[in-house]
Amino acid sequence: MLGVLYDIHGNLPALEAVLEQAETEGVDRWLLGGDYGTPSPWPFETLDRLRALPDATWIRGNGERWLREPPERAEVVDAYERFLRDFPETEVEWLYALPPRAELDGVLYVHGSPLADDDSFAAEPQEVEERLLAGVWGRLVVFGHSHRQFRRPGPDDTDLLNPGSVGMPLDGDRRAAWAVRADDGEFAFRRTEYDVERAVHAFRSLGGAFGELAAGRIERGSD
């Protein structure tokens, strides 16, 4: 069984709870969809837990790309500048060099969309979707970035699936969101209870606009 984890964002309590549940369900392969732990209260612990997983395929999210290519957003730039003071260059190089997409068993996995890692599909159909598909048609596309768990048909005979965010769900449900793909190819969504208040406190302790933004999102389960 394949476990599909996206948008962990260094929320170690959420990740640990998900991994514990996944073990009971017999997950033995992993697709890791980006935005792992930078910046966050537990960047190294998060990476250590993920690197210990057997048979894991990694792709890069915008969070890893921003280590080298920060966006023009003051709160993000400030958070990354403070975070990178103590973050080893070898880790930056490894995360930035991850591939932007992966294909497993006929399924395409990207972070945001086939077009860009920071531009994603909404839960309801939008006019821009053909542009976001960037020529992909007739297949299942798994993606994250929006932190909202859903599945629906897309244009050009595509099937769009977002497993949701492990560490920072934004669909109104504070539980960690992820998915599994059984050996018969069927996907199923999962939600996992964890110590939300521990995560909120840790992110708020980071300080700055980003720390408060992240803490609020985790606390509410929404923007």
The CATH homologous superfamily is termed Metallo-dependent phosphatases
Major β-sheet profile: 5 strands, mixed
Poorly predicted spans: none
Summing up helix and strand content along with how strands pair, one would put the structural category as alpha/beta
**The top level CATH class name:** Alpha Beta
Q: What is the fold-level CATH name, i.e. the topology?
A: Purple Acid Phosphatase, chain A, domain 2
Shape: globular
The beta-strand count equals 10
The oligomeric state of the chains shown is single chain
Rg of Cα set: 16 Å
Strand composition percent: 15-25%
Whole-Å distance between the termini? Answer: 32 Å
* SSE arrangement, N to C: EHEHEHHHEEHEEEEEHH
What do these coordinates show?
There is one protein chain. The chain has 223 residues and is an alpha/beta fold. The protein has a single domain (2-220), classed as Purple Acid Phosphatase, chain A, domain 2 (4-Layer Sandwich). It is 33% helix and 20% strand. The protein has eight helices and ten strands. The chain has a five-stranded mixed β-sheet. Strands 4-5-6-8-7 form a five-stranded mixed β-sheet, with no helix packed on it. The two termini are 32 Å apart. The mean pLDDT is 95.
